[in-house]
Amino acid sequence: MKLSRLIIATAVSMTLAINAEAQDKGKAYVSTQDAGISVVDIETMELIGDIDVKAPGPRGIGITDDGKLLVVATRDNGSVSIIDTASHEVLKKIQVGQNPEFVRIKGDFAFVSYEPSSKGGPPPAPGSAEALAAAKEDDDDDKEPARIGIIDLKLGKKIREITGGPETEGIEFSKDGQQLIITNEADNTVTVHSIKTGKLLKTVKTHKYGDRPRGIKVSPDGKTYLATLEYGNKFLVMDKNFKVLRAVDTGAAPYGIAYDRKGERIFVAVNKAKTLEVFNAKTYEKIKDIPTGNRCWHFSFTPDDKQVLLSCGKSNALFVIDAEKLDVIKQIEIKNMPWGVITYPKSMGSIDTALK
Fold first, then answer.
1. Cα–chain-centroid distance for residue 220?
2. Cis status of the peptide bond prior to 345, with omega within 30 of 0
3. What would the pLDDT profile of 49-64 be if each residue is shown by its tens digit?
């Protein structure tokens, strides 16, 4: 009799555990520039906690393939914080360089953009009085280009760096993992580098299409690349050899960009137009403009691809969007200027990419 009860109790316990696991759709991690990391439960779409990164100005954020470590760039002290996702404790702070911003993780390595000559703030609009004054003030021979610092997460230190262009912004990897593609907003270029050697392989000039390239994304099949042009109100479509195929019109000031998992649609966060725009990935025709909030830069699909989470800094909100109906279904209050958002399990998005 006792044995029967034990068997029944064990079976019930296992069933409850399986159900709990099935209901766990993962977590979303949102970097906030004026605080730390906000954690959202994807099952309930509720804010469930905050992580103190022990450093000011968190922006770029990445997560390891096993979901155990967060890597967060902290602008004001030139470092990244390595955080245990289970305990929410900062395990280590690693110096990278001045003004770190974008973070991408590939295997056991984190790639972090930083700007040794940055004076803070975005570059001025081309042709503006501020731009002309800056051109007179700067000596291009003395101005250091931006760098991509490469951090060995097992060793816990920066091991080398790749030289980019001035004001490096977005970072992407080629499908074969051999090349690093970066957008350089101050000189209006997209540059391609060997990850192994750091050698510059190709430069794509964007000025004829638009200025200030920001977001960069490879298609799921690796055959095309997209780059947003914030001061062109367009995104570029490039083939696998980085030949520009076309420029597609968007609303004002596009930034974050990503394909969906199947590569059928393209999503673009358009800052000044206050929309998330959706395009057909084959015809490049507009499918829909989704009204959103203020200063929406980065977004991520949920791991099941059913929603899109859009981080809107000046609205202090994370917008939840139905990925099929393409409508906003909820706003989650995220204070302190949300910047970027990623999930675990990993998803498609403007910062991260789903695992194969």
1. 16
2. yes
3. 999 999 999 999 999 9
Contact yes or no for 332/310 (Cβ under 8 A): no
| Integer angstrom CA distances of residue 324 from 266, 274, 349 | 13, 20, 16
- Spans of all domains in the chain: 26-119+146-163
CA distance linking residue 333 with residue 4, whole number of Å = 49
Q: Are 310 and 291 in contact (CB under 8 A)?
A: no
Closest to 244 measured CA to CA, from 261, 224, 260: 224
Sheet containing 157-163: which strands, arranged edge to edge?
103-106, 109-114, 147-152, 157-163
Is the distance from CB of 210 to CB of 229 less than 8 angstroms? yes
- DSSP code of residue 304: T
Element (H, E) at 92: strand 90-95
Instruction: Quote the pTM value.
Output: 0.89
CATH architecture of 26-119+146-163: 7 Propeller (2.130)
